[in-house]
Inverse folding.
């Protein structure tokens, strides 16, 4: 801790805690969305979050038209993963969140010149994921 000037001590620990909390919140949100998919009926907001598709009309091209109550029936997690776009990985991929958490935890125990850069990259990844999630439609 100390490769980047001004990024040590309290600032470093605060950044690490923010990354851990952000990744944990993202993991919990993704877990909830996946359970809703396994339940059988999903709406456009859930599909947008899991795939990263930002336009609900594109969802119709990818998954077909929804039913009368604006729900898609019978969509599986494998189908969603096949259609995932880049924003979907940053918003709702468990591997990205676990990697960010791993980098932070590793940075407390292993001092290396690259660790500050990796922690900053993890922070930027989490921030970008939340910014992209904020741009997704809430209701379609």
């Amino acid at each position: 801790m100390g490769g980047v000037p001004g990024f040590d001590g309290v600032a470093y620990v605060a950044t690490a805690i923010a990354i851990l909390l952000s990744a944990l919140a993202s993991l919990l949100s993704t877990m909830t969305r996946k359970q809703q998919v396994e339940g059988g009926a999903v709406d456009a907001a859930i599909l947008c979050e899991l795939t990263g598709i930002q336009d609900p009309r594109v969802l119709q091209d990818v998954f077909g038209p929804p039913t009368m109550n604006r729900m898609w029936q019978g969509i599986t997690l494998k189908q969603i993963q096949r259609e995932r776009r880049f924003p979907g990985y940053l918003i709702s991929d468990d591997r990205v969140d676990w990697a960010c958490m791993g980098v932070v935890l590793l940075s407390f125990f292993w001092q290396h010149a690259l660790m500050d850069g990796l922690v900053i990259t993890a922070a930027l990844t989490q921030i970008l994921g939340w910014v992209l999630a904020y741009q997704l439609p809430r209701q379609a």
Summary: The chain has a mean pLDDT of 89. The two ends are 45 Å apart (CA to CA).
